[in-house]
Amino acid sequence: MERDEVELFADGACSGNPGPGGWGVLLRCRGVVRELSGGELQTTNNRMELQGVIAGLSALKKPCHVAVTTDSQYVKNGMTTWIHGWKKNGFRTSSGQPVKNENLWRELDRLAALHEIRWFWVKGHDGHPENERVDALAREAILALRKGRL
Fold it and tell me: Residue 15 pairs with which residues in a beta bridge?
């Protein structure tokens, strides 16, 4: 079966760390763009970065070729390098400590296994159009949370 090519751009933001946080996602497939966002009242920036990618992958209805672009080294390195060791070590770091955000890493790993994913990092706040857009979505989600609209 032919897999669709999907571009997924995700970002997370937090006002205070921890504090109110938001995530934003832009999905593009066959010329169609879909934007998603959400947030939590008490969270961290890293959790929102992860949640953005999770939400984007969760929105896909079938296995796809996905190009994930993030400005989070934490997310990119976690999924391309660190997770292999974490899984071997029962989600413990090399120093034996529990991996932070284990529940989100496990969910992201589960979703990623459904697709063929290529991971890309871009510098945040550097004029990349889609990264700027998902950053705006994440920040808008924080404002909506504060106003009780999310």
Answer: none
Compute the half-sphere exposure of residue 2: CA atoms within 13 Å on the CB side of its CA.
2
Active site residue 4: no
Q: What is the DSSP letter of 146?
A: H
In angstroms, rounded to a whole number, what is the distance separating the alpha carbons of residues 33 and 23? Answer: 17
CB 124 within 8 A of CB 139: no
72 Rama sector, left if φ>0, alpha if ψ -120 to 50, beta otherwise = beta
Catalytically annotated residue among 96, 125, 126, 148: 125
The structure tokens 């990092």 sit at: 121
Q: What is the DSSP letter of 114?
A: T
The reply to whether 127 belongs to the active site is: no
Establish whether 56 is a catalytic residue: no
Q: How far is CA 55 from the centre of its chain?
A: 7
Tens of pLDDT, residue by residue over 31-84, are 999 999 999 999 999 999 999 999 999 999 999 999 999 999 999 999 999 999
Mark whether 12 is an active-site residue: yes
Annotated catalytic residue: which of 24, 38, 56, 135? 135
